[in-house]
Amino acid sequence: MPIDQHQQSSQASDSMHLDELSNVLRDVHAQNMATFQRILTSDRSTLEENRAATDRFWDIVVITAGDLQQRLCYQRQIDFKLSKGQIPRQAKYHVIEDPPKSKIGSGGSTCLVMNVLNDQYSDDFISTARVLLIHAGGYSTRLPHVSARGKVFTILPQVNSPDGIQVLDLKLVLYLHLLKSMPPGVFLTSADGIELLSSKAPFPSDPKPLTITSLAHPSSTAIGSTHGVYLLQDTSDLVQADRALQPKDQSAILTQCLEFLHKPSLDRMKRIPGVIFNGISGDKDDIVYTDSCYYFDPQTAKVMAKIWKTLPLDCDLEAWADVLSFQQDSPISPSLIGDPHQQGRHILSEALREAKVKLDVMVLNASKFYHLGTMLEFLEGVCIDRAFMAELHIQNHLHPQIAQVGAHTFQHEKTGTGNDSAVIELPVYLENSVVHAQAKVHAWSLVVDTDLGENTILPANTCIFTLQIREQAYVTFTVSVKDDMKKEVEGNESGKHWLHRLRIYENVPVARMVPGGALESRLSSSNPDKKVSLWTAPIFEVASTKTESINLAMERLDRIRDSLSRSDTMGWKDSNLLQSSTDSRIIGWTSFKEAARSARDL
């Protein structure tokens, strides 16, 4: 299979040596993976005395879901993994969904989970349990290929595993070394963040009660401007002294948080003394300490359980921005008195302060935080970032920038032309897909559950995946990895108008992508929502077979590619390259959102 030679020349970095921090984190992850395998092995043992007594695991694992349908979908996948022995059976697994017609956000969901656990378990058990809480509710609009199964079941390539590793399994692995010293309580994380921590980062054996302990990672000021940033109480300069050590010698520095800044501007960070740490040891870049996971003790969990009973169901609280900023007194301004978010934020902050909860920060200089919440971030992580790939044991066998999950990815067929192989540009992610001879996949593409036939051409920056949404109904989605899935246009008028304003592949009007005639008339009479986006617009054809669905998608890509290649966009005619409005292969139309919901029920 030919690989773009120009791009091959850019792979000199593949041979570079990892820095010491990456080596430390890689070794810690390897130890955690070995521990996880021992726990799985002991799970299979019928003799209690054969269990590995020294390997501690979570007592309770909670995954949040956006609604009942998503809960049932998650539960089916967890039950399957348990039946196959893929995750430890010794933990109690719960999927807890948000109430119907609510919008409580991850912050409200945290309080809800505490209330559910408080009702379900005895005080004696919950006060000694170690709980892993993974926020995974809602649709993965920015990572649409996992929108049906859920982002917590996103698959990453893995050494010695052709099926890769799911994020859920990874989350169960990542923090195992912390459990050696972690006291009872709740450890909260998100499904789209990957945190790697040194083994010399123990929890205090007996943390203060009524305390939230948040993990802090060194980050650039640019990253700090899009995350939460801590102002630390570090009068003894312990943080800076630890920074001067080699990564293998760096440990956890526990300090108090004086202020939590949510997405502060660079000017604001510069104005507050102590937020920015100057570069040291040849590192010219200034750093700040940013948020990710956090832990809270059983007493704080009970406070949160009580808070749940007073929160509005449309409070839409965020588990980081709204929870970690509770120390700041933020009275509701008169103009925002009726705002459910401000009301919920005020209730949460007041209750935590009245309970005298404190916010501590565990500074982890030997750590990294990666975000895999968008298509580009995902491709960057599994195909480009050599440190991330080495630290998480991601090994792409065919080429470092071709990530493969699933068997039988490429088929070579004799055609008599002398060029029987597919052509792959870099980077590309392929999951459970077949690329046939003479197909061409351009760079920065995600291909999931889709067979690319002979002579298929996939444009650059394409995310393509196929979903089965009913017994005999399939849809193959195509979108640019750079598209803003949530960007809305007015939809409360005839479909003909908003089809021209809604853009796909960044600049192509959707009207040029869809078959002419039938869809416009359908939308004109369907009273569409006030606003529509690529996520909600029913602009993708449904077919009765997977093959027909993929063929329709390829024809759709032909129209998109034709539009992208035309400089005279004003002179483009809607009739160009359009299918017949009575194409018998099309049995319906759907959107990303609608298809994700339908696929979850199968």
UniProtKB/TrEMBL annotation:
<keyword id="KW-0808">Transferase</keyword>
<feature type="domain" description="GDP-fucose pyrophosphorylase">
    <location>
        <begin position="124"/>
        <end position="544"/>
    </location>
</feature>
<dbReference type="GO" id="GO:0016779">
    <property type="term" value="F:nucleotidyltransferase activity"/>
</dbReference>
<keyword id="KW-0548">Nucleotidyltransferase</keyword>
<keyword id="KW-0547">Nucleotide-binding</keyword>
<dbReference type="InterPro" id="IPR012887">
    <property type="entry name" value="GDP_fucose_pyrophosphorylase"/>
</dbReference>
<dbReference type="GO" id="GO:0000166">
    <property type="term" value="F:nucleotide binding"/>
</dbReference>
<protein>
    <submittedName>
        <fullName>Fucose-1-phosphate guanylyltransferase</fullName>
    </submittedName>
</protein>
<dbReference type="GO" id="GO:0042350">
    <property type="term" value="P:GDP-L-fucose biosynthetic process"/>
</dbReference>
<dbReference type="Pfam" id="PF07959">
    <property type="entry name" value="Fucose_pyrophosphorylase"/>
</dbReference>
